[in-house]
Amino acid sequence: MAKNWAIAIGINQYDYLQPLNYAKRDALLMQEFLGKEAGFERIFFFSDDSPPLGGKSTRPNRANLRQVFLELFNKPFMEAGDNFWFFFSGHGIRHADRDYLMPCDGNPVDIEETAIPINFVAERLRRCGADNVVLILDACRSLGTRAGEGIGRQTAEQARQQGVISIFSCSPQEYSYEIEALQQGAFTTALLEGLGIQGKCATVERLDQYLKFRVPELVRQHKNTNQTPYVIAEPVDKSHLILVPRYATQTDIATLKNDAYQAEADRNLDLAEQLWIRVLAAASGQDTVAIKAIQRIERLRWESQQPSSPPRPIIENSIKGISIVEKNPLKTFQFEVVTVNAKGDITNRRNEEAKYFAEDLGNGVTLEMVQIPGGTFMMGSPEGEAERLERENPQHQVKVPGFFMGKYAVTQAQYQAVMGINPSNFKGEKRPVEQVIWDEAVEFCKKLSQKTGRTYRLPSEAEWEYACRAGTKTPFYFGETITTDLVNYNGDYPYGSAPKGEYREQTTDVGKFAPNSFGLYDMHGNVWEWCEDVYNDNYIDAPKDSSAWLTGKDNDIKLLRGGSWINVARYCRSAYRDGGTRANRDDNVGFRVVAVAVA
Question: Which residue range is the domain that position 197 belongs to?
Answer without folding.
Answer: 4-246
